[in-house]
Design goal:
Number of helices: 10
Shape: globular
Helix content: 40-55%
Number of strands: 10
Distance between the termini: 83 Å
């Protein structure tokens, strides 16, 4: 038998339930923070510091990953499709992710953070190409931080004051770091201010802080494979320069540069350099600032200088 009273109660309950569900969904949508995706660990670190939780920042690459050779996975496609803003280095540092961004991130604003810096030009396969490793000069990273700040403020204008203050503090720290690095490098005997690394990622660092780059095993991209002739030329350059040590890098297998050190009769520095990525949490290079301080400490100590720790 049809019960109008019970049917009315059921109908009313259903309406209330739908209304509450709609309110909850609307509230979740309203409260959801803008999604920012970054393509390198260095950008992730800078953006997270500046955002201070005002927006949600997620990095695609994990600490220690190599942006030159990284091959995107399906989760990266989904992340870029959800993104409101994508921060990428540019100058073809992360070719696989740039290709994915152009396909899957079409609905997001895309900011080439590294390209706010006029690049050094290096030779690759007989052509001049921009060097993407702009963060090697800390003053460049201060410019990158300002570009990230501006992009984040456009995304979350209500948090302008908070993010401006965060960026100001970060840029002040970067300026102190820049001055500290210059002072430390000056303690290296003049004849030893020469750098040999696995790949050509330290031109900006050398130019900014007074180190000449004697040579590298491979060029600006870690995709390159050195020939036997390249190895021998580097060995000869090391012998001629009489550098006291050469350096491996955290994102590249050290076996080849170890071979070069042995053939050249030179020490391989005990501390590898952070080149294209910050270090894992808890490591000496877990942030951009710590990464640059750790690199400088390793270089100065291996080349005969004296370190005054960064405060």
């Amino acid at each position: 038998m049809f019960d109008r009273r019970r049917f009315g109660q059921f109908l009313m309950g259903s309406v209330v339930s739908l209304w509450l569900h709609g309110c909850t969904t609307q509230e979740q949508t309203t409260n959801q923070k803008p999604q920012v995706i970054s393509t390198s660990t260095i950008l992730t670190d800078l953006a997270t510091t500046i955002a201070g939780g005002a927006v949600q920042v997620a990095g695609i690459l994990k600490p220690g990953a190599d942006p030159h050779t990284y091959e995107p996975v399906p989760a990266d496609t989904a992340a870029m499709e959800r993104a409101t803003l994508i921060l990428y280095n540019g100058y073809n540092l992360e070719p696989g992710l740039i290709r994915l961004m152009k396909a899957a991130g079409a609905n997001a604003k895309q900011v080439a953070v590294g390209e706010v810096v006029p690049p050094l030009q290096l030779e690759k396969e007989g052509q001049k190409v921009p060097d993407p490793h702009v963060w090697g000069n800390v003053q460049n990273s201060a410019k990158m931080a300002a570009a990230i700040r501006d992009a984040l403020i456009q995304l979350a204008p209500n948090d302008r004051e908070k993010m401006t203050q965060n960026a100001d503090r970060l840029i002040a720290e970067l300026n102190r770091l820049h001055d500290w690095i210059k002072q430390q490098i000056q303690t290296i005997p003049a004849q030893n201010r020469r750098l040999v690394t696995t790949h050509d990622a330290f031109q900006y660092y050398g130019q900014a802080y007074g180190l000449s780059i004697v040579g590298t095993l491979i060029g600006i991209s870690t995709e390159e494979q050195p020939s036997a002739q390249t190895v021998q030329r580097l060995v000869q350059s090391i012998r001629a320069s009489r550098v006291p040590a050469i350096f491996a890098e955290t994102t590249i297998n050290p076996a080849l540069i170890q071979t070069v050190a042995e053939e050249a009769g030179v020490k391989l520095a005990p501390q590898q350099l952070y080149s294209d990525s910050i270090g894992a949490p808890g490591s000496s290079g877990e942030t951009y600032i710590k990464m640059m301080a750790a690199n400088t400490t390793a270089i100065v100590e291996a080349l005969g200088g004296r370190i005054t720790p960064l405060k």
